[in-house]
Amino acid sequence: MSTNPPIATTEEYNPQVPPILPHEKVYSIQVGYKLFRLSGLSLSSDAPSYFTKFFEQPDNEEKILFFDRNPLIFEKIYNHLQGYSININNDFEFVHLWSDCFYFGLKRLQKILSEQDLFANIGNQTFRIPQSLINIPGNSPNFFTINYDRLLIDNLNLIESKNMLRPPPQTPPTVNNRSSELFHDLLEFSKGNNLIVRNDDHRQLLIREARYYRFLELEQRLIKHRLSPFGEIILNINDISRKGLLNPSTKEQEMALMYCRPFIKEQHRELIFQIDAKDFDQSELKIVLNKKTKLPTVKITNKACHKLQQVFKDHISEVLIDDKSLIFLVGFTNSTTFINGKEMNPNWVNELLGIDNPTTDDTSNKKKRKIDDQSNTTDDSDKGDIIEINLSRSLWKLVSRGHLARLHAVTLEGFTCSSDTKIDFL
């Protein structure tokens, strides 16, 4: 026996029925092998319709209206006209009822169906997809609503343009090349069951499925993130959407970039983003310390460079771009750094650069000119003044002053030679 809840309209029920047909008169409708007898009250409850237009004609009052359709589907319509809520058991039953109610012109039933859960077949398994998932900002329009809208429009256009004697055949949305198990987990997560996510690999599979079905709000809920003790939001660079970024800085006031996950009702927080060597080559992110200019910078190349440009393109217009690379000034105040498995002291950068009186990080024009000098120095034959540290994992803030931007290190893990040290990152 099906345990699906019955379909019910969300609008307030109106017991008054217009007298389109005499309420006390009984009319006969033959559907396939079964005869249905309905009162004028029942037929008028969802009118005007194919039925009321037929029986309103005086010559048709005593006739039996015949349809060569499935009487099991018409049973649902029969119950609806009698005032009962109806229960739909599977995807084909839903589509057939949907198709017939449009053909018969039952507008109230159309509205009820359009407000209810949808059905789809994913990987040979039928799913009931709740409106609480498919009809909220970020999740709509999606794969299923687009399919059902097209089904509705195509049905109406065909019936009206060709004056068809019966509705055209329709099939429910079917996705054979996706996993039914993953879709089940996706529905469970949408209901608040966060424990359904088994590990990071499983999370990535669910995110991929959410993107496929265009559940963008659900995708944001699935993305791994955490809040720091100071209230910053920490995300992997690959999980950041440009839509969620906010630059609160001005030309006079330097501030960190803020972030809010799109479609999620939460406040903007300072953004800390993570870059991992498992996502990019280890040589694509380097700390470069120039003893001549006394400037610490970070050089980002190739795929990592492309990713940062893609995410932060509206906020790094003044950053030096050299072919396929980005070069940022970088600050280290209150940061934690591990190099070759060893935790560095808070003043390690100034010690390596030979700076006795460190100054506060800024993005002045003077420092920007020095970056240009450093870019040229890296190609000189004298490499003794350049120290390069490859970063395997790193946490950063993007700090802006108007259109000027620099990176501020939060936690770094790097090496000047091979290192197997692991630290607690995202």
TrEMBL record:
Coiled-coil segments: none
Pfam families membership: BTB_2
InterPro entries cross-referenced by the UniProt entry: SKP1/BTB/POZ_sf, T1-type_BTB
Region Disordered, annotated ranges: 359-380
Domain called Potassium channel tetramerisation-type BTB: residue spans: 29-109
Protein name as annotated: Potassium channel tetramerisation-type BTB domain-containing protein
Top-rank taxon, per record: Eukaryota
GO biological process: protein homooligomerization
